[in-house]
Amino acid sequence: MASNIHLTESFTNPPDYSFPHHRISRTMRDPQKTPIVLVACGSFSPVTYLHLRMFEMAKDYVRQNTDFEIIGGYLSPVSDMYKKPGLLSARHRVNMCTLAAEESANWLMVDTWEAFQSYQRTAIVLDHFDHEINTVLGGVYTEDGEHRNVRVMLLAGSDLISTMSEPGVWSYADLDHILGRYGTFIVERAGSGMDQATDSLAKWRHNIYLISQLIQNDVSSTKVRLFLRRGLSVRYLLPNPVVDYIEQNGLYLEESPNTSTTNSEKGKDRDSTNTLLKKDLPAQQQVC
Ligand SMILES: Nc1ncnc2c1ncn2[C@@H]1O[C@H](COP(=O)(O)OP(=O)(O)OP(=O)(O)O)[C@@H](O)[C@H]1O
Ligand SMILES: O=C(O)c1ccc[n+]([C@@H]2O[C@H](COP(=O)([O-])O)[C@@H](O)[C@H]2O)c1
């Protein structure tokens, strides 16, 4: 790790917050390995099978190609203050992520720390995880009782990493902190090339792990929202409990009031136009 220093040492928690750690393995299986925790930051509006699949792909990659041992994984939904188009309230996004994590692998958890407060930069979010897992919880242990610090690592799609090369989206200091101190697993995403995503991040290459999609699948939350607005089924694109939750609460039936854009979603969210639906659905299904 580049440095042990956090960007901040004072972490403000939302009201009634407690850090979830019930699914962390506190005892390592292999003492020779480095324990890591995977953190996926994003909107999750709504969470899809592709978000969950990222964790499974990372698990396979880690087992086959690295000396890491995954001791837990987190979905960290972004704050409502992110104000991205299509961003449903944090309460609903957290509930859907919780349903998805519960029915999926037994090592996934949802952290509400960033969701239920003001917008927090990703570098600060990773510091928060490092603080909770290593300072508050005290890290993990080998079977022989030896203590190990856990390395926090960002799990992201190649579209998110591409934004790291776009001027004005991320600060250099934050990139150095995220990629230099922590590191990242990048899952290939259709339409967002891996080389393009990482070319300008070469300085941190040793901490960037690229995971190819062997089965192409380009489900996105944007497409799911468009389907829902047009009364089309999204079953089998999302976990069933999440589909049921969306139906029971009548979510995504109308266009989101969050229409202001942030730098980070440049060219990505096409929710306010019909471009995506026209391009991606057969003509007979275009109900607009
Ligand atoms: N199909 C996918 N393949 C690879 N990574 C993905 C995929 N869908 C989402 N991700 C990654 O998951 C993380 C969270 O994504 P996010 O919540 O923004 O979903 P999204 O589908 O991109 O949302 P939206 O369509 O609203 O922009 C990001 O790192 C994103 O790159
Ligand atoms: O920390 C930053 O400077 C920063 C810049 C751009 C994006 N992010 C994070 O990246 C995630 C982007 O999610 P999304 O839905 O816009 O793909 C979200 O968690 C943001 O907080 C973070």
TrEMBL record:
Pathway: Cofactor biosynthesis; NAD(+) biosynthesis; NAD(+) from nicotinamide D-ribonucleotide: step 1/1; Cofactor biosynthesis; NAD(+) biosynthesis; deamido-NAD(+) from nicotinate D-ribonucleotide: step 1/1. Residues 265-281 have a biased composition (Basic and acidic residues). GO terms for molecular function: ATP binding; nicotinamide-nucleotide adenylyltransferase activity; nicotinate-nucleotide adenylyltransferase activity. GO terms for cellular component: nucleus. It is found in: Nucleus. Gene3D superfamilies: HUPs. One of its GO terms (biological process) is NAD+ biosynthetic process. It catalyses: nicotinate beta-D-ribonucleotide + ATP + H(+) = deamido-NAD(+) + diphosphate; beta-nicotinamide D-ribonucleotide + ATP + H(+) = diphosphate + NAD(+). Residues 255-288 are annotated as: Disordered. It comes from the Eukaryota. Keywords: ATP-binding, NAD, Nucleotide-binding, Nucleotidyltransferase, Nucleus, Phosphoprotein, Pyridine nucleotide biosynthesis, Transferase. Its EC number is 2.7.7.1, 2.7.7.18. The keyword Hydrolase does not apply. Residues 39-225 form the Cytidyltransferase-like domain. Pfam families: CTP_transf_like. Belongs to the eukaryotic NMN adenylyltransferase family. This is Nicotinamide-nucleotide adenylyltransferase. It comes from Crucibulum laeve.
